[in-house]
Amino acid sequence: MYEEILYDVDERIATITLNRPDKLNAVTDLTQQEMRHAMATAEMDEDVVGIILTGAGRGFCAGVDMGSLSQIQEAGEISAMRVETDLERLEPGDKSMGPDFASGYAYLLTVRKPILAAVNGACAGLGLSIAMFCDLRFASEKAVFLTSFAQRGLVAEHGNSWILPRLIGPSRALDILWSGRRVSGEEAVTLGIANRVFPPDELIAETRAYIRSLVETASPTSLMHMKQMVYRHLMLDLGPAMKEINAIQDRSVRWPDFQEGIASFVERRPPRFPPLHPDD
């Protein structure tokens, strides 16, 4: 079905693997369309609780494919890299999150399920942006995070000027953007770019273990609302955010998830939460 990514579902975890290892998974327009389609497929699958995004081979994603960059340079516009595909048009994410999340990889913030980037190697340029717009980032000890925008005469592209300061603060973001220096997996955790770092051969297993813990203990509907609240409230003052929090809290006590959460606690057993119900 896909040419430049792999898609697999196992133990209620969807894994999307960028699959151009000979190019360090540098993305083409086809890669991006296939990834978007796979995200929507995972989101619609009731059996899927969480999503892992990773790369095949030595890299996570080295940015935009050089062939695509040449097309852009020659034409003088980004649309020159776009291609037509036969993929069914599927739109991932919750459009009720609003137009602020409609551009670029900000759509990942609206996908109704947790997305974990398992950064196994080079994570550069657009690849950095893709990873930053995932909900959590688990890094290999061999991971390297970097930008090269200033060194190519470009700017903080792909939403990095918005997401990086929110993750690590303005001065640290400017250091990474200006210098283009290489940030190791261990430093990435110290800075706040990555959440955890693991030996290379443990990265995927540990990332899967994290999502399996959510499968076993957390309500999918609670996970969705928490994700939406966190990102939506980045745009709001405290007063409006608190108003929305209180409204959702009032609704949540009527959910079957709340009843099951209480029952499983009282009966001292693992919870059996219902599938995601996004309209409640």
What does this structure look like?
The protein is α/β, with parallel strands linked by helices. It is built from ten helices and ten strands. The protein has two domains: 209 residues, 2-enoyl-CoA Hydratase, Chain A, domain 1 (Alpha-Beta Complex), CATH 3.90.226; 48 residues. The strands form two sheets. The protein has a six-stranded mixed sheet, sandwiched between helices. A four-stranded mixed sheet has the order 4-6-8-9. The radius of gyration is 19 Å and the shape is globular. The two termini are 33 Å apart.
Layout of secondary structure:
Layout (H helix, E strand, L loop, with lengths): L4 E6 L2 E6 L10 H16 L5 E6 L3 E3 L4 H10 L39 E5 L2 E3 L1 H7 L3 E5 L3 E3 L13 H9 L1 H10 L3 E2 H7 L4 E3 L4 H15 L2 H14 L4 H15 L3 H11 L14
Parallel strand pairs: 2-3, 3-5, 4-6, 5-7, 6-8, 7-10
Antiparallel strand pairs: 1-2, 8-9
- Shape by Cα distribution: globular
Question: Any low-confidence stretches, pLDDT <50, length ≥5?
Answer: none
Arithmetic mean pLDDT: 92
Radius of gyration: 19 Å
Percentage of residues in helical conformation = 40-55%
Structural category:
alpha/beta
What is the fold named in CATH at topology level of the largest domain?
2-enoyl-CoA Hydratase, Chain A, domain 1
Oligomeric grouping of the chains:
single chain
Question: How would you write the strand order of the largest sheet?
Answer: 1-2-3-5-7-10
SSE topology string = EEHEEHEEHEEHHEHEHHHH
Number of strands: 10
Kindly, what is the distance between the CA atoms of the first and last residues, rounded to a whole number of angstroms?
33 Å
Please tell me the CATH architecture of the largest domain by its name: Alpha-Beta Complex
The largest sheet is: 6 strands, mixed
Total separate domains: 2
CATH homology-level superfamily of the largest domain: 2-enoyl-CoA Hydratase, Chain A, domain 1
Q: If helices are DSSP runs of H or I spanning 4 or more residues, what is the number of helices?
A: 10
